Amino acid sequence: MKFRDVIHHARLEGTLVEVAAPTDPDLEMAQVILQHDGRPVLFTNVRGHPGWQVAAGIASSRDYFAMALKVGVEELIHTLAIAMENTVAPSVVKEAPCQEVVVETDLNLSRLPILRHFSCDGGPYVTSAVLILDDPDHGPNVCFHRLLKLDERRFAARVVENRGTDLALHKSSGDVPVAICIGNALPVLLAGSMSPPNDVDELEIANALSPTPVVRCKTVPLYVPADSEVVLEGRLTHTMAPEGPFVDLTETIDPVRPGPVIEIDCITHRRDPIYQALLPGKLEHKLLMGMPKEPTILAAVKRVCRCTNVAITPGGASWLHAVVQIAKRDPDDGKRAIEAAFQGHGSLKHVVVVDTDINPYDPAEVEWAIATRFQAQRDLVVLPDQPGSSLDPSGTHEPGQKARTTKMGLDATIPWGADRAAFEKIRYQ
User: What is the pTM for the complete model shown?
Assistant: First the structure.
């Protein structure tokens, strides 16, 4: 299901919020999107940007992902895991909707309706884009980067140290060709949020989820989803510029840091383009960040015990907390699952391990398991001074270094050898 198909389906289902009144991308749109968080919103009259529409919220519910992939919500994590392990190379087309209009001269990024979300933001930010580049050792890499518009041709990118884009940039003495894709199908957004092994092409994961044809860019040697709304072709440079402030996933202000500058040399888009907006810190951001990490944790925990489900929780900013459900077969399975979960998602800070009778998506059930099955002196795992997340304001942050944190795991499974009947809820008949 393509980007526009989700909008069309929401219109037919009556869940699409269509805003026909003139609306400004500078602060005003963000307020409207926030009012309807959890529903798709389409702005058809974008102030200052004739010919453009803006859509948001297409990824703000697990139901939309399930619809796009034609599976049940409970099957999403397993569908993502299967696609990550069984990738399919996409077909290559010569003509694509994303290249109906090609602009190589008189470039001006201000023609795009890039939103400024908060008055404290460093400027207008592209938040929904996936960036594509070629790593000289591992091949194509597709990932999310927020982009602060600096001027008519340049962005400052937030690039986390020692991860894919940063490593690729440091392998090159010159500029690195990049393609920035905006307005993508949900499988592309999901794949771009995953953390597969280095030699796995995320577009092959997207194609395994749903057919995702690609086309070669006009000015850089890269392939992009043919159905993207907008593609910005350019170069990731070694020039640095201040990036931030930005309200991030935790709904707190991410500070100003130096970020590499991206220079844009060519813009391609559809004839009637729809710019995709994504409201920082709210449901769409949380789901796209957190949900694709669930199969990664699942795979890691499965290597040490029988893991049946994983939920990244919204209360943990859909990034720092997870609940892991296991079918316990050994007295140490709970602690093994804790250690493996931290390996499966490096930014994870706290994890709770539960039995199969506990719904990991229900915070009340998880808390009940902690209350009735957990004893700190026996079931608590504390790992001090671990690599953490730059998004956690309580961690230790040093410029140019990985954030540090203390990680905690709670084994809230039924104690091994105990009478299970004493730990199970009595159900009403």
Answer: 0.88
